[in-house]
Write a structure and sequence with these properties.
The chain is mostly helical. The chain is built from 19 helices and 4 strands. A two-stranded antiparallel ribbon has the order 1-2. Strands 3-4 form a two-stranded antiparallel ribbon. The longest helix is centred in the last third of the chain and has 32 residues.
Amino acid sequence: MSGANWLQLLALIVALAVTTPFLGTYIARVFGDPPEDGTDGDGTDNGGAGEKHPFGDRLIAPVERFVFRLAGVDPDREQRWTTYALSLLAFSLVSVLFLYFLQRMQGWLPVNPTAAVAVPASTAWNTAVSFATNTNWQSYSGEVTMSHLTQMAGLAVQNFLSAAVGICVAVALIRGIVRARRETIGNFWVDLVRVITRLLLPLAFVGALLFAGLGMTQTLSGNTTVRTVEGAGQVLAVGPWASQEIIKELGTNGGGMLNANSAHPFENPNGLTNVLEVFLLLVIPFSLTFAYGRMARDRKQGYVVTAAMAVLLALSMAGTLWFETHGNPELTRAGTTQAVTSTQGGGNMVGKEVRFGSAGCGVFSAATTATSTGAVNCAHDSMTPAGGGLALFNIMLGEVSPGGVGSGIYGMLIFVLMAVFIAGLMVGRTPEYLGKRIQTGEVKLVVLYILFVPLMVLGFAAVATVTKMGLDGRLNTGPHGLSEIVYAYTSAGNNNGSAFAGLTVTNNWYQISLGLSMLVGRFFLMVPALAISGSLVRKQRVPATAGTFPTGTPLFTGLLVGVVIIVVGLTYFPVLALGPIVEQLGL
């Protein structure tokens, strides 16, 4: 890595360390229950968690009240977990249907300067499900397939809404853990509106202006033809990219307006925007861990989750950087220099943008697969087998390092409950977490949560590797071909959206099966998470004793990291051994 790469990485770490505690405190103020004594329960100031009037309330509250009246929502009426889940599912169903029909009708609708025609039915289905589930998997070229209206009123809107839904589930699960002897976990419609008005929209507004100032295009014009230095004509796809790029990254969505995604200079003009995009991927997921500590009135619990996520991300990022910056050993043996020099970035430059190099790819790749984001600034299919394998393993973790907006924190809290259960087995006591006993019902739901996605991912991948309809899309054979198929279903099932592009997924089999994978990976996990919240919220806290396993310590952090790695490793190691591991060993 060059000195500039190290400075960029340091700037990223400092920016996250400074920003996330403040943003986490703000989130806690918006969604937390106000404590009676204004403390964390241990005599320390809670930083404003659950205050009745968080920052910006005088400006935003009237807008929210208008929206609630218009929608017929009583903001003071909370819901049981079943009603919360049904509201979420109904809203998501409407989102899928609206986006599907918008794509099918875009050829007859206005704001279509590129004369985009109706999207084919299977592609429209796949895209509608993809964006409504925060997956943002794309099997098409955005600049030639979607109209500006579809991009703005359909895809960009879903970038806000799907991200907000994930945060709603996270907040609901935290309430279930924190509250005691209650029946309700909040109101989905109130949480949805507040996530958008108080968090996503303000940040996106400022970020869009910043991105436009840094060189991203922001216009409603159609394609522009320019003359190159050789005298030839070139068509440039322009549009409202800055306003969509900000929520694409901030909401860990990832769906790009242009086929090259964040490798395109109109979506990622320079090194500064590249660092900012990585920052945006990580800022809300890590902020939610700080919000959790404040909402739980026990900041150590938030620090444990933060540390576990940071350790997993650091290990992944260090490994990816190592393999990508050290290049391909076959090229080294052939006498090709892959070292950093004044004229080249060094390392494995296949599929890389020369503006960012192998190090920029490694950092971005680790961040985008550690979160539920499909944005890429390099071709993951062209990474070294081990580098691409680490990207794949990141997604297999369930994207809890730090995961997507909302999905990362509630996914990690599920692993926390699993770790607490294992610790209870070790000491021969009924496991407890924050004073609540973790019993058979919660453990069954945790197991369902952990098993749903692997069963679906490995099942569909197995079918694709032995049937003509699955093999027809494969462009590569051997271990890499297997990795491409597994990556596709892992990415869809975990709502990531990135891909190994050597697999063609435009036939009906992949469009439909990947769409089903996205639905399972989103809602078959959200419902158990809400069910766990509904079960825990009814329980009474029991006082800690000498036999209570402490969960706010470095020891528990290590246990949590180990549980995540071992559970995922035991699940996916055979297919990883047959794919990226054996391919790397063959170099």
